Amino acid sequence: MNLRLAVAPLILAASLAPGMAAPAFAQNSEVQPAQRPPRSMPQAVPVEPAVPAAQDKPYPGTITLEIDATDTVRGLYRVTETIPVAPGTTRLTLLLPEWLPGNHGPRGTMAEVVDLRFTAGGTVLRWTRDPAETSAFHVDVPPGTSTITARFIHTSPLQKSEGRITMTPQMLNLQWDKMSLYPAGHYVRQVRIKPTVTFPPGWRVFTALDGQSQAAADGPNRVTWAETDYEMLVDSPIFAGSHAARWDLGNRVSLDVVADDPRNLAVAPENLKAYRALVDEALTLFGGRHFDRYEILLALTDKLGGIGLEHQRSSENAMKPAALTNWAAMDWNRNVIAHELSHSWDGKFRRPARLWTPDFRQPMQNNLLWVYEGQNQFWGYVLAARSGVQSRDMVLGQLAAIAGTLARSPGRGWRSVEDTTHDPIFAARKPKPWASLARGEDYYIEGALIWLEADQVIRAGTRGRKGLDDFAKAFFGLRDGDIGQLTYEFEDVVSALNSVYPYDWAGFLKSRIELPGRPAPLAGIERGGYRLVWREEPNPYERGRADDKHQLSLTWSLGLTLDKDGKVIACRWDSPAFTAGIVSGARIAAINGQAWSPEVMRAAITAAKTTKAPIQLLVQRDEAYRTVPVDYHDGLRYPWLERGPGPGTAGLDLLLSPRRPNP
């Protein structure tokens, strides 16, 4: 300590006259309570609800909705909506949909709505956005007003960084919820609407909406549909494009395809046969149907944004451009249609009670998504294999990939399957720094493996007479022809399972769904006569997916996923790479002194099996380089399902076998 500084306070204190206070800097730095400065403490302003709650009563009159979708260069949908107003109305509240079935979280596209104006009789009306519910607009209504006209533009993103692209020069995916407003205070099934859309000349239009017509006087590209209710409208999106084809799959189901390139529409007859088989397998599985007709909307594209979204009488699907023409190579890419088709029964008709809402404003509660999506993921795999839409080996590869992922998932130690059902609400599928520890929407994949185990429990208990097929028919296939919705709770699921095979289903499901830290969910695979094993080559699914993305997956060895340039896309928590301090965003510049390439990396991992020396990685992070030793010696590892020992046909093989008559 500096002696001069140490004695300075003593000298200063001695020099003060009696009664004089020492300067503040010489006092104890802690201010006594009586000397603290004043602190204002406001009270919260109550948030007064300004948006009326939905009631099950008709909205007076019919809304007309006109959309000009011809500006494919700029990606613009120009909207004109005419809304009738009841006599005596002084304020009308209009909403942009926010909570949509199938999205499992608030996904409104308010940021893409621009140039919004309201008029009545040529007069511009004053409007305000609700400060608490920003998808709501309060419009002042002058006396004597009978209709209000809303005009705005929905701007499709033009590049992926702006959001999902819904319009290109060759095709569009029009979703009504993004470009229409509806009146608050009513169940959406009680709001009547008549839609019209103008498309680019020569485009073909596909949707499940009824009463499609193209009046010659209006031009061949102006299409209108019969009046419907707003719930049905939002549940009936449009695919349209300049390169398009339609195939009848039988049973009042059609495959409606738009493509970037017309050559991708040259689908071989035997491949279309697989989709006809898919429809047959779905109807055989579920029994009753909940659509009068069904449109499988498919975009073969790498320009329009990807999608897989369920509706009761249609589904929105996107696959790689050559998914239907390069059949063998694109086997890995074709599960989406099987998944979304089965949602017509599981998710749309039968829906968890707290996931059904009267409008698109009320928040949804996702706790039963492990049924809605988990069992549907299971049926997507099964139906794809049964129909031949995907090969049996590819489906086994998909099951191996999710089993391997969950077997090496540190996030399962702290987070239950049920808790992951809330992920789409608060995470909105954004990238996470340590995704393997955070977990994501694992109710899909872990749910599928839990339902696989349930199937095998039923098969074993009934000596093969029954399986989860019997549950599907009893739970999802009832009320044939009903195109509404039938809700359920957890107890209804348990009751239906017990009607198929008496068992402690409540305990079975609760322990696997609600508890974290469970063993890896491999029991269904093992009961089905298979086991998870590790090999040095990727299984067919992993190979196809990695090749398409130009990635090197080392998830189950070093713990890294790398792009073609060596950039780290993901690092698994507690993996050898994690322990060495490698993070996402870094780049592997060299391996053991050799410049980066996927081949050099694979060779180094293989060579390390026979040496105790660590793999030396030259890692670039921002502007800095450092050499990182990774102490790993177990070689390349990829998950596979391998047939276990034992006589007869394995239960998993039986599950994936066709059920339709004369397959």
Number of domains: 4
Largest sheet features? 8 strands, mixed
CATH-derived architecture of the largest domain = Orthogonal Bundle
- Spans of 5+ residues with little confidence (pLDDT < 50)? 1-26
- Cα radius of gyration in angstroms: 30 Å
How many strands in all? 31
Task: State the CATH topology of the largest domain.
Answer: Neutral Protease, domain 2
Beta-strand percentage?
A: 15-25%
CATH class of the largest domain: Mainly Alpha
Q: What is the helix tally? A: 19
CATH homologous superfamily placement of the largest domain: Neutral Protease Domain 2
Shape: globular
Provide mean pLDDT, rounded. Answer: 94
Share of helix among residues? 25-40%
Computed structural class: alpha+beta
Q: How far from one another are the termini?
A: 92 Å
Describe this structure as you would to a colleague:
The chain is α+β, with helices and mostly antiparallel strands. It folds into four domains: 3-32, no CATH class; 53-242, Immunoglobulin-like (Sandwich), CATH 2.60.40.3650; 246-524, Neutral Protease Domain 2 (Neutral Protease, domain 2, Orthogonal Bundle); 540-638, Pdz3 Domain, CATH 2.30.42. It contains 19 helices and 31 strands. The strands form eight sheets. Strands 1, 2, 4, 5, 8, 11, 13 and 14 form an eight-stranded mixed sheet that branches. Strands 16-17-18-20-19 form a five-stranded mixed sheet, with helices on one face. The chain has a four-stranded antiparallel sheet with strand order 6-7-3-10, with no helix packed on it. Helix 3 crosses helix 6. The longest helix is centred in the middle third of the chain and has 18 residues, at 269-286. The radius of gyration is 30 Å and the shape is globular. The model is unreliable at 1-26 (pLDDT under 50).
